[in-house]
Every structure is written in C-alpha cells, then in structure tokens.
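Researcher: Here's a chain I'd like modeled. Treat it as a single chain, no partners, no ligands.
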Amino acid sequence: MEKMINIRNLWFKYDGPWIFKNLDLNISGRFNIFRGPNGCGKTTLAKIISGLIRPIRGTVEIDGVDIFNSDKAKEKLNEVVYVHDKPIILRGDVLYNIKFGVLMQKKMNLDEEELWKLINYFEISDLVSEEAKKLSAGQRQIISLIRAFIVRPKYLVLDEPLQYLDEKRRELVTKYLLEIIDNGSTRILIATHETELLNYADKIYLFNYDGSVREHITQY
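Model: Modeled as a single isolated chain. Structure tokens:
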C-alpha cells in the first residue's frame, strides 16, 4: 500500500480564531514541504500529523490508521519522528543526546556503525563528549537532526530543519535528506518559510492565513 497521510474535516484552534476549518488534505509525496509565512499553521499541522496536538474535530489517517481514535494509533505513531524548530537538548553529553531517540524505541537496536557514520558525516566527532546544552544553536540543531535520522522512521517531520545552520551544514543536511529519499524507506515532511529546499520537493503545500492549504506538484 502506498504511504499516505489523509486529513478529513479537520478543525483546530488555540485560544483565538480558527486556524483550520474543515480542512481536507492528502499528503502522498516522498519529499513534502509545507510552505507559507509564519503564523499560517504549518507547524500546527505538522504537530497534529505527528500526534503531538489533537484536533478539535476531524480525522488524521496515516497509512489508513486513524492516529487519534484507532487501537493501532500508538504503533503507527511510533513510525513518525518529529523534530522541533527549536532543538530539544537533554542533560548529558552529545553522544547520549544522539542515542536517546533509539533508547526510547525499546524494540529498536542501535546501529553503532550508522551512528558513527552520521557523526562523522556531520563533522561533530570532536563534540561527542561535550555537554550538549553548552553548544551553539547550530550544533544543537545538528544533534537533534542526527537523533531523528538514526531512528530511520517511516515518516520524518521536520520543522525549519535548516534554522541556525551555517552554509556548509545546510548543504550537508540537504544532501543527506536527498539520500534518505533515494533510499526510499522514509517519507519526509518539512515545514518551512525558507526557499532553499523547494527545488527538491515533489509536492509543496501552500498555506494561507485563512486556513486553506493548496497542493502544488513540482517537477523534481
């Protein structure tokens, strides 16, 4: 079965006006981008899809499983990894922070070879024993991304993944995301207001302040 996220009749708001009213959306690309200005609902919908926020009403299905009302919801959400726009860093050194994602997946064994491949690829081998909370914002961002990559989820949801990164690390992250797509095992969804990744997406979802979302299919 083709991997797909189906959203039906979704309504959501915080304390103010409705962000989404009766939203219907199908997300089926390999490399999907939520595009739009700040405050138009990109992050909110990404969190709903990841099971972090429950909609007021409506359904969200991933591969046919209702992630809020099915007895298979927890199992399905274990296949989704969300990376916040502001890196979440735990007490302890860099290596512990990177391994934490796998440690939380109790049924998953850590691939040490892949772990060190990623550490070396992103050029942070000299930081593995450092206290993670003392690092720069860009270094913390790389740690949070590696922590997600090592889990090898079926769905990888990233909120502003290039934020805080210098030009070199932006290029490294972009290249690695394309390698994930070429491998074919993971679908990527990125919420961003930046233009840097747009050329690589096969589907772009354009968000508007009125809560509407329009799909744009690219030629990549």
